[in-house]
Design goal:
The protein has helices at 3-12, 14-23, 28-39, 42-53, 67-95, 105-115, 117-122, 132-153, 161-186. It is globular, with a radius of gyration of 17 Å. Helices cover 72% and strands 0% of the residues. InterPro entries: Yip1_dom (IPR006977).
Length: 193
């Protein structure tokens, strides 16, 4: 798998790409190594550069910060992002039969990992906080990718794909908030600017 080609394919022609992904034999570890470790780094690195190196906050205001605190934020965000993919994939797998689909952890992992591509790539806009809304829009496109991929990878009937997608989106939001609060809270990392 070529990383850049896969990113382009899943973002620009997802309907054609999901069946290709479904046939691939890479295991979870290979997807992490070949794909996720690179893409999951984009949002935290961009945010770090924007706030702690360039010093830009919301609406272009000048900010700075303690470099070590920024590095810790970046690493924590990265690790939480990687853990979140597997956690959500586990839940996606368990939920599939409730929506008429089939359980297959590898397929669930592929679904979640590749659906998050848009949000990861959109994370580049975190380098300038005023553009962060574009990151949100990219993540919304990721929801569409999830919706398209669910019938292909998890065999969810098309009429049940919206419900399955909605439940997974809520789980991602809640899990992100909880993991973020636990991670940053346990590290004593309130925003120090």
């Amino acid at each position: 798998m070529n990383l850049i080609q896969r990113v382009q394919d899943i973002l620009l022609k997802p309907k054609e790409t999901w069946p290709v992904i479904a046939q691939e034999t890479d295991d979870i570890a290979a997807i992490y190594k070949k794909y996720l470790v690179f893409l999951a780094a984009i949002p935290p690195v961009a945010a770090f550069l924007g706030i702690y190196v360039l010093g830009f906050g919301m609406f272009g205001s000048r900010m700075g910060g303690f470099m070590m605190s920024g590095l810790m934020h970046m690493i924590a965000h990265y690790v939480v992002s990687l853990v979140l993919v597997f956690g959500v994939a586990f839940v996606a797998n368990e939920l599939a039969p409730s929506f008429g689909g089939t359980k297959d952890l590898l397929s669930a992992f592929k679904l979640v990992a590749y659906s998050m591509t848009a949000g990861y790539v959109g994370g580049v806009f975190s380098i300038i906080m005023a553009l962060s809304v574009l990151s949100l829009l990219a993540s919304i496109y990721g929801i569409y990718l999830l919706f398209l991929g669910a019938p292909v990878l998890m065999k969810i009937p098309e009429d049940k794909a919206p419900g399955y997608t909605a439940v997974l989106v809520v789980i991602v939001i809640v899990a992100s908030l909880v993991l973020g609060a636990l991670t940053y809270g346990s590290m004593g990392m309130g925003m120090r600017m």
